[in-house]
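User: Before I run my own analysis I want an independent prediction to cross-check against. Here's the chain; please return only the structure tokens and, at the end, one sentence I can use as a sanity check.
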Amino acid sequence: MNNFKFGISIPDVTPNFNTLIKGINYKYFDGIELRGNIFKNSDLPNLLKLYRLRILNLFNLVEPSILSNIDTQPNNVRQELIKLLYSSISNYKEFNIQNFSLDFGLCNTAYKNKPNLVKIEFLRQLYYPIYKSKKHICMPLTIPDNNSENIKNLTDTLKELMLDNFRICINIFPHEIKKKISPDSLFENFIFDLQLIRIIYEPSTGNHLTEALLKFWLDPLIKINFKGSIIICPNVNNLESFEEEVNKTEIIIDKLIN
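Assistant: Structure tokens:
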């Protein structure tokens, strides 16, 4: 098995970060994923050092409903958003954030399959902080929702941006996929642009992460020599369920790497 970097997405179920991450074993997980609204915790940098973890991804620092409509917002609103993102990318070095997942709605087909120039100019204003910090801004693509046109819109936008720090994050909802899908064909579209894989599932509805399911998505990543991170995202609403999913995932990862 390839030397993948695994992360676990932290749910917003308790303000006590020590309780949340103390059971995450660095032997299996390189780091964690946090929502943008819960990461500014004064205890977090020390806890990350204590448990030998890092923040592999910070997502929804700004809500997608806002970012996906920036092309229709007044210029002063766009500039305020630029300041927020610029500051967040440039600062918080103590958190060691690797990636920022931001949904600008770039898969939207409403623009006749042409890159949205307003959004591209907005993103270009973030060139300096992400290049200097060596971090990545990751644009999401959702499976099974997005199709070949959506994929083309996203890859065309990345070509327009022409900066390696802009990458792709694929959000996979494996239990919602009804048609047969080929991960090999999917990942071949993004050999040089893929940074994050997020596997999202809801245990309370009977959908669980299994060794076979994870292996189905990981094997094609080996073929393209994927160097990014795989984030496991159990959709849970209480601490006990989260701890159970962490334990189950560690057992699966142990089987895959040994």
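Sanity check: The two ends are 8 Å apart (CA to CA).
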